[in-house]
Design a protein that fits this description.
It comes from Sedimentitalea xiamensis. By secondary structure, the chain is mainly alpha-helical. The chain has 13 helices and three strands; from the N terminus they run ββαβαααααααααααα. The chain is 53% helix and 5% strand. Strands 1-2-3 form a three-stranded antiparallel β-sheet, with helices on one face. The chain starts with 9 loop residues before the first strand and ends with a helix.
Amino acid sequence: MVVVVSLKHIDELSGGRKRFRRRWPKDVGKALGEAFMQRPMVAREGAALVAERETLLREFDATVAKHRRSQEERDRLTPRQLWGEMQEEAERLTSGVVGDVEGALDALAEEAQRNEDPLLYRAIKTPEIAKKPAPTLADAFDLYARLKIDDSQGRNPRNRLDRLRRRTETALGRLNELPLDDLRREHGRAVLDVMKEASTSTGKPLSSETIKRELNMLAAITELGLIEFDLAGVRANPFRRLETKRPGEAPVSATDARLPLPPEVIAEVRHRLATKTKTPDLSLICEPACKFDPCIGVIGVQK
């Protein structure tokens, strides 16, 4: 007895030839300008046909995922990240190729070329000689987020990083288009000028101390990128040693930099520690027998 298995998305053409044909989802088809994904197949039967079909199904799924990614997410990818994705996609597309391997690779490369996807074309045709894109300032930000920010620290560190990235983009444009090796002192001054014009959520100008902290963070991000991408000693860090004080601005003393908590806040903290804490030892912080006011010294913001 002969068992005949019909493979979905495969059409029979003249002369025993096979064609892969599958309808795109409407949103993807509209973006691509075609209703179906259609590919002539090399294999004609057996395990080779099944394997080639699996490769084409992976290509279909990858294309749908790529086009459904939000535009904002695509815009934030750096050339290096795109190249990495294209290498993974090329490996995924070519891993199941059987039979006429060269012919199948040529067909995949031609499709990438038709879709105006030069990175994918290079990843398929010349992966061994294609040059990896240069690291950008966006790569340095992403690297810093991955290595230096732990989600256990809460949202504040990541929020500060996102705010700094937005201010830096306001000054320098798209960071994924600014190679680290192109950084110059003028980029540092441009960021400083934007920060001096920026305001807090209450509408007040950023203080010199705030600007200094943000520039120090930006310098640390850049330094990490220069080190990790082997550019340390080749390119100077343009965000170091920038003068943040405005002309005529009075110096800020250590006492004025952080004001103590108001008396009413101190009183409320003392009351809550003494009456509502679930950890008994915390009430000892405001023990009346203390020779000094511990709520100011311990709970208050340090002078």
